[in-house]
Write a structure and sequence with these properties.
transmembrane, single chain, transmembrane helix, OB fold (Dihydrolipoamide Acetyltransferase, E2P), alpha+beta, 5 strands, 3 helices
């Protein structure tokens, strides 16, 4: 998903309602604006400090890599769990070798990855940035 331009309609402490517009010259009255992009144009996004109603913002995706690629994360977690349990079985010698322990280790790692995905899930799918503001570069 790329970026979209929107105009802030209302603000609260943790979120803002933003009207998605096509151009910068859209009016501030979202209900009768002819330049809206569709029927569901007013959405809730993650809030930002020092913004005012009527201000233009850029809407960007708020999810991280783990939440965007859940299946790959779970498969990677399972493989990592199998490898990790195999390494532990080489370090700590059990009486007999059982391959089921590898799958148990993979299953435990999948459960850990599911919990990690649930914890890192953002409340709002989009976040806003001020329109025309330069990003700070690291030196």
């Amino acid at each position: 998903m790329g970026q979209m331009i929107g105009r802030i309609v209302s603000l609260s402490e943790e979120c803002a309602e933003v009207c998605i517009v096509d151009t910068q010259s859209a009016c501030s009255n979202c209900s009768s604006c002819p330049k809206k992009t569709g029927t569901k144009d007013i959405i809730k996004v993650a809030g930002l400090n020092k913004v005012k109603a009527g201000q233009l913002v850029i809407l960007r995706d708020n999810r991280n890599w783990i939440n965007k690629n859940k299946i790959i994360s779970l498969i990677g977690g399972f493989i990592f769990g199998v490898i990790l349990s195999e390494v532990f079985s080489k370090i700590i010698v059990f009486r007999t070798y059982r391959s089921e322990y590898d799958f148990i280790g993979g299953g435990i790692m999948v459960v850990i990855m599911i919990i990690l995905i649930k914890i890192t899930k953002p409340n709002y799918c989009l976040r806003m940035e001020l329109y025309g503001e330069k990003k700070r570069e690291h030196n």
